[in-house]
Amino acid sequence: MSSKEAAEKLQTRFEGIVSELTEFRDEWTLQVADPNRIADVCHFAKQSLGFDYLVDITGIDNYGEDPRFTVVYELYGLDHHCHLRLKTDVTEESSSLPSISGVWRTADWHEREIYDMMGIHFEGHPNLKRILMWEGYEYFPLRKDFPMEGKPSEVTEVASTSTAPMEGGPFVTSPGGGNSGTAHAIRFPCGPPYTN
Asked: Do 15 and 84 belong to one domain?
């Protein structure tokens, strides 16, 4: 079975729900029109089509568009070596999808990260809590409307609750700064040197 054949079987099984089969560089992507059915589609892909490995789940912020979010599921079959991508859109108003952690256990961490960074809830998740930011933090740092310098927080248990300065710090080097003129070459085993 090829990735295209698997995608076509999903289209047949979920007619009207799974649509828009697209191909790019021999990778096949299906659009799941009803986000509330994503768990059903994933369950069928695993049980009936042999996609037994969930490679990744990614959240995309389409800020300024409606629906605002796209969630992308990367599936792989260890026996048939086929890759398939599923996409579904989520509105900002609902910001919610069914959890697929009951289909693939590894979805637990992926869904928690998307919840933490993007604010998308996964209904039925066994332990949906923040994974990178602290509990009580009210913002979602990977949303496109989140400022690069961060936002102040009222949580007193953390080391710093003020906005990060833009003239220095661990991630920003100001032009003409003390270390901005010195470039260090880092050699990796494969490929050309990387200069920072």
From this structure: yes
Residue 103 belongs to what domain range?
A: 3-132
Q: Please give the structure tokens belonging to residue 168.
A: 């220095």
CA distance 157 to 52: 41
Cβ neighbours for 68, distance < 8 A, ≥ 6 positions apart = 61, 62, 90, 91, 92
Number of neighbours of residue 80 by Cβ within 10 angstroms: 15
Distance of alpha carbon 115 from alpha carbon 108, whole angstroms: 11
Low-confidence ranges of the chain (pLDDT < 50): 167-174, 179-188, 190-191, 194, 196
Which tens digits make up the pLDDT trace of 123-174? 999 999 999 988 888 899 999 998 887 777 776 565 555 555 554 444 444 4
In a domain, 194, yes or no: no
Question: Which ranges of 1-135 would DSSP assign to H, the alpha helix?
Answer: 3-13, 38-47, 107-118
The total domain count for the chain is 2
The closest alpha carbon to 39, from 81, 97, 83, 118, belongs to 97
